[in-house]
Amino acid sequence: MRNLIKIRHFGLVVRDLGKALHFYRDLLGFEVFADNLETGDFINTIIGGSNIEVRTVKMGVSPDAALIELLDFGSRRQDEIPESVLFDYGPRHIALEVQDIERIYSLLNHEGYSFISRPCISPDGKVKVAFCHGPENQYIEFVEVL
Question: Which CATH number fits domain 93-145: 3.40.920.10, 2.40.50.90, 2.60.120.620, 3.10.180.10?
Fold first, then answer.
């Protein structure tokens, strides 16, 4: 029995919501579809806490496609979150299909974001790929289909 309908969103807890919005909305062109401050019994219950207050911003390329949800827990956020590496267990990166990866590479470099390498063509010649360190040092994979 198949009950899965679609991937709805990917949640990213952020320390600096302004910086994350600049990266995803202003530099990459994601559209914001919802921006909410969530408090009360429902969020406390599903998060498993008390007095939770979280700002959630859902964005993407279409409201019907998988979205990215930025979550800002304000004063509840951790001061020190250990850096992860790309090959640790658990979610490690978001892959975004793009046009003109070289332009994105130049734009983000100019804005101070670092990449593991310049965009590289895959051995089968079908895609060009580059991994960027996002606004909170998470990995963003950019993929251009050739």
Answer: 3.10.180.10
